[in-house]
Amino acid sequence: MSHAFDLALCALILGAAVLAVTGRNVFGAIVFYVVYGVLLALAWLILGAVDVALAEAAIGAGVTGVLLIGAWQGLADAGGLEDEAPRPVFLRLAAVAGAGALGGLIALAVISLPGGDGLTLAVVDNQDRLELGNPVNAVLLGFRAYDTLLETLVLTAALAAVWSLTRTRVWGGVPGPGHVTRPDGVMASFGRLLPPAGLLVAVYLVWVGADAPGGAFQAGTVLAAVWILIVLSGLQDEPRLNSLPLRLMIIAGPAVFLGAGLAGAAAGAVMGYPDGHAKSVILVIEYALTLSIAATLALLIAGPARRAP
Amino acid sequence: MTLLFALVALPLVFMLASLAAGRRAPRLIWLCAPLMTGLSAWLAISVFEGGRGGPLGGWPVPLGIALEADGLSAALLLASAITAGITGLYALGAYGRTDRETTRSYTFWPLFYGLWAALNAVLVSRDLFNLYVAIELLSLTAVALAAFGSRRAAMRYLMIALAGSLAYLLGVVLIFASVGTLDITLIGERAGEARIPVLTGAALISAGLIAKTALFPLHGWLPPAHGAAPPAISALLSALVVKASFVILLRVWFEALPGLSDPAVTLLFGVMGAAAVLYGSVLALRQQGLKVLIAYSTVAQLGYLLLVFPLAGGGEAATPWAAGAWGAMGFHASAHMLAKAGLFLAAGLMIHAVGDGRIDRLEGLARAMPVTALAFALCAVSLMGLPPSGGFIAKYLMLIAALASGQWPYAAVILAGGLLAAAYLFRPLARMFAGAGTPELARAPHRLLALAPLALGLAAMALGLFSAVPYDLMVIGLPEAGQAGLEDADPGS
Lengths: 309, 493
Prior knowledge:
The structure holds two protein chains of two kinds. Chain A is mostly helical.
């Protein structure tokens, strides 16, 4: 790849970032933010970090973008998008100066970093003991599985936080506005056509994640997209939020992960895996996590209940 | 090791169980509170016997993550288990409905257990990135709970907490890129001389944590958020949440990067702490609302914690009074947990009874609600630093350390802070005992609720009455810098 392409990509990333930050129009800022995420994923791809690229595209640009558009819609409905009075010039200048100074300091620190590849060698030396070919997965579900466990619970807690904003009257009801589409329209056909493919991709992403880029978070995002597509196409409404099967689906992944971590104590080390069975236990955890991540992400996007049960 | 993991895993199990249990979820606290208190007590005993922890999953650091508890963690785990357990039982009054599900009686519990797990995760972690994940979980649950009171204040809290998280994460990245490990002990061995990336990282981490702890001058978000939340939630936020980010600040400066804390740094932290003590107290004096007064008192009391930096002589400058200062900080953190939660819970009952949060309306309450008023008074005594409370031991040890090290300005601040605390807490107390009549009051949701703040007040007293054992616990595994002074400072016994 030539330097010209790299330079152009860097310029595009910076340009999209500046437009996202400085835009007066909230919707425009969100669009540039999504563009920025996609360009960033491309940059990760060029740097050879395929796992990061997948995560950035799926979660950084995709899910976050959808959430932001949902927030924009909510703001617009509540009348929160009216023009604010511009802040005084000296305040804006002070903000620019502060951000510039901080950026300069960080740049200086980054430039003076000593080389070194961190823990790469240690990961490669040890990943065979987990029977995993993908070093990223070995870190996420092996060496630092405890971090991943807590992160999945951050997601669960975020859903509880969103639900805590439900109006008393509609508690346990159905989120979202309810979509009606023409039964022979484009949206409905998409809703029938894409979900089987999405399901297949998700199952494959988890399976291949053991040895190549992929894994539960990426697969969960794909499944969540399938969920949203089905709802948007009007084929199936969002579920009632007081449904027990739905709630069990949300806690399944973290519960299996937590249970495996505690069971590790019997096998010698908490958050450890039994020798010779690491890969199978990890796959069970990942499939359970995929299910829960998909449900949690889709319900985060759907928001609190708006229609009574 | 398994015990340390269980202290994080158990509240997480209860978080998931409460999501599945639906309208029966509130009852789980009857099981969780005694279990967690028992486990924490067990941990304290095992730390006394020399237990520390180790790496998770059999992966040694720097590849894996290590959990470890020193005496300070064990003491804070026990104090927070008592505080969270009692506050959880008290919350049954507001979120205990079991005949049908409501928004609050359902969503309070997973957020509550998530907050508890995150706090414990911070207290036992030895890994800078794992600490980031833990405070993310903590901030998220805390903000969601704060929104039970005022959404506007919670939004402001969210912005500050996120900015703090980003600054912290950026600092962690710089430090990891410089030394190639996230483990606090290994960083302490490798960081050596202060290079630019490590210094920048430490500054970013500190700025983020100071904002999250609401240390002066980044305290502005705290009084509205803590003052407007329902009482059980104010108690959790003020007593527990802000302590977690402070503990990380201690770990970074005393254990990961002790070489960085030269006199200029400890002076900066000391001045910030002193300013918080004075500023928070003066503002508390001027409040008309009972809960906002207590919230400003938190701003002031957090300032005392920062005084450990100059009093313990920073990271590497071993001083004979360091152990005393370290113990004082531990006592202050524990006593403030118990007493501040107790004050908020008692205030909640009083405000519910009179239907108004203004201090002027408390007149005669001591006659109508004697148990609640007694609980309020006990907690107030500990915050003022009067004997025989845990707060007294904390301020006494701090004063000794300040005088022994010849830093008399800090001694003056500690004394002035005590006097100001007496002044601002005397105002509501005086109203409670004023007048002659017994006011008409709304009935409490349950008549046993007053026992919750009373138990917390009594625990704060017990901490002072039996101070020798907790002191011995808190100085176990003291950062090396402080150990020189262990023989010289032995209070209470």
